[in-house]
Amino acid sequence: TLFSNKKKKRKKICYIFFIVVNEFCERFSYYGMRAVLVLYFRYFLLWDDDLATSIYHAFVALCYLTPILGAIIADSWLGKFKTIIYLSIVYAIGQVTMAISTIHDITDANRDGTPDNFTFHIALSMLGLILIALGTGGIKPCVAAFGGDQFQEHQSRQLNTFFSVFYLCINAGSLLSTLITPLKSVASTLMVFIAGSGMYVKTDPEGNIMWSVCKCIGFAIKNRFRHRSSSYPKREHWMDWANEKYDKLLIAQIKMVLKVLFLYIPLPMFWTLFDQKGSRWTLQATTMSGDFVSILISTVNPILILTLVPIMDRLIFPLIQKCGLNFSPLKRMTVGMLFAAMAFVSAALVQIEIDKTLPNFPSSSESQLKVVNTYSTTLNVTISPNEHLLIESFGSSADYVTFDHQDITVSLNTNPVITKAFSLIKGGRQTLIIPSDPTVMYLKEDVKSKPREGKNAIRFVNGYTADLNITNLDSIEPSATTNYTLVNQGKRDFVLRHGEQWCEFSRKFGFGASYTFLIPSTVFSDDCESITEVEDMKPNSVHMALQIPQYFLITTGEVMFSVTGLQFSYSQAPKNMKSVLQAGWLCTNAVGNIIVLIVAELGKLPKQWAEYLLFASLLVAVSIIFSIMAYFYTYIDPAEIEAQVRKEQGLEPEEMEKETLEMEEKDEDQKNEQGVKQTKI
Ligand SMILES: NCCCC[C@H](N)C(=O)NCC(=O)O
After folding, report:
1. How far is the CA of 563 from the centre of ligand 1 (A)?
2. Where is the composition biased (Basic and acidic residues) (predicted)?
């Protein structure tokens, strides 16, 4: 017995291996593609930030809505195994379609590096994304439930370990995806999964279960309405009104599912906060200093998951249990929510620090102006009605001057006095450039927010007497100003050229600054030494390391909330509706994403820190509601309830046999475990 049980255990570890490696590959592919999706929208399809972000979130939401479809197909028709295989093929076709949509040569007839027919690329990429969403979302509830199906009812400890390992694989896949291309992994996902085919426990679909569930619920509601008069005796549960027509077992199973789904109602709020990691927190990072922006954003969460899941599973939870505290799944989920709320409080505190260092940007009704003087002498600049600025040659006004009106008149104390009227941009920042010929002074628009991804925005004013060429920029005419170019942090070299003359100048950049470089007429004679810099926007000074606590808190919350939620959804579902409840669980994530979309559309509170605190308070309120709902929830053993109902109905011999077999196996396992313990002693 000992030998055969060891063999069985090894076999189980082997096929669980295939399932978790399958999840690893699938997540590797999914996150690998997701990481570059917004960049593809922005720089290939040339969409603006808002459209790119909206389509990105819509895609993520779709990926978490399609599990309903996958669950219906699996539980009602194909079974989990075949659903995973078929939808993985759909997934692979989606990835290939997406890859093809990125080949600009297909429509780039004039070979200028940009596609000629954007509609073709957009249509192809949207088709690819829909197929990927169908594939990834469709197989997701099935893989988790299929993994769970490999365990028997008495193996709850092993089942919990499986879900932890499953989650570790999700995050290992996502972590590695930042390093290797995603396409190869789709094929390997399928191959790994099929390789284990002969070993899996495959439960058969039990007819169109979702349709039966809908019909049964519909009948219960109709029947209840028909018997609404008080002369009819009340029933214990409203679903009992389906008793006249439907099987007691089906009614009992629906009651179990509805009970859990009801509990899910407050959960999307957790995901609303969690998913802002990728949006608001990323934007926050761009206003901070430190050279690990992209690494931090894409890897800190999976790295923390890989560390925290084993610590929680092996240390924290057993320790809490040893202290005699009952840290039930629903309590863990509540604590998880509170951790996420704390993460947002931490984000708010960081934001307050950042705000102290941010420039004072104009409001939508204000305009801001700075003056740059490249004239040969110091100038007295008067801006009507009462702004007087003294500006040295090749210098600038100390800071932006804010106006609550747009029409201004500028006078220079030249001989004769030069006066010119300008209309400023409402809500904008501009610089008045005074060139060597002040009569042609002009306005140039400035950046009015921190440059993205911690980059630096730079531009040049040509005070030289002829056209200049600067590395990577178009030629600049005398007195003209270039548009901003973004440069990364670190030391950058620029070569200035006019005909045979040239000189080189270097500059070390921090994060998120903006500069205007003033090139004097003497630039070649003093070897670029006389180029002066005007700081339009200070570099970021709050270090990105300050974001680590919020990432740590939200990931701790995720381990408590998400890993537990996954296990809970499986353990509380009747056997034939495991994938359906997994899909319900994933839908909470979709709703969370949709809320993020709505919040982004509705706009922000004037102060970002206030928005973070608002979200934290909302989640605390929701977690209180959830804890009250959880208090009234009684944990069930679906198999036990099903057995009881079957017993009441009179068991069929076939099922009885199956159950006896399972009981015998359970006994064997227990005896074996005791045997192993005794041997150890
Ligand atoms: N690049 C970030 C990946 C985050 C993964 C996240 N921690 C997670 O586990 N999500 C669940 C899933 O099923 O993808």
Report:
1. 11
2. 658-674
- Write the pLDDT tens digit of every residue in 340-393: 999 999 999 999 999 998 889 999 899 999 999 999 999 999 998 789 999 999
609 contacts 348 by C-beta, under 8 angstroms: yes
pLDDT reported for residue 667: 46
- Is residue 127 predicted with pLDDT exceeding 70? yes
Q: Which of 24, 63, 169, 171 to mutate to test the pocket of ligand 1 (most atoms within 8 A of CB)?
A: 171
Rounded distance between C-alpha atoms, residue 428 and residue 369, angstroms: 9
ipTM of this complex: 0.95
Cβ atoms within 10 A of the Cβ of 482, count? 19
CA proximity to 517, closest of 414, 634, 395, 630: 395
Cis peptide before 416 (omega within 30 of 0): yes
Q: Best substitution site from 64, 174, 282 to test ligand 1's pocket, by max atoms within 8 Å of Cβ?
A: 174
First to last CA, the chain: 19
With a pLDDT cut of 90, the percent of the chain lying above it is 52
Q: Which atom of ligand 1 is nearest to the CA of 34?
A: 1
Tokens matching residue 197: 């085919």
Q: pTM for the whole thing?
A: 0.80
* Interatomic CA distance for residues 159 and 582, integer angstroms: 15
Summary mean pLDDT of the chain: 85
Residue type, position 273, single letter: L
User: Which two structure tokens, joined as six digits, stand for 86?
Assistant: 């078929």
Q: How far is 351 from 547, CA to CA, in rounded Å?
A: 10
Q: Report CA(593)–ligand 1 centroid distance (Å).
A: 14
Two tokens at 607?
A: 């102060």
Ligand 1 interacting residues, C-beta cut-off 6 A: 27, 31, 167, 170-171, 174, 298, 301-302, 305, 558
Closest Cα to atom 5 of ligand 1:
171
Residue of the CA atom closest to atom 14 of ligand 1:
170
CA of 187 to the centre of ligand 1 (A): 21
Question: Among 527, 444, 507, which Cα is nearest to 480's?
Answer: 444
Give me ligand 1 centre to Cα 649, in Å: 44
Amino acid making up residue 556 = T
* Residue-wise pLDDT tens digits, 395-446: 999 999 999 999 999 999 998 999 999 999 999 999 999 999 999 999 999 9
Q: For residues 517 and 311, is the Cβ–Cβ distance under 8 A?
A: no
Half-sphere exposure of 242 (CA within 13 A, CB side): 23
C-alpha distance from residue 69 to each of 64, 76, 128, 211, 534 (Å): 10, 10, 18, 12, 58
CB neighbourhood size of 142 (10 A): 29
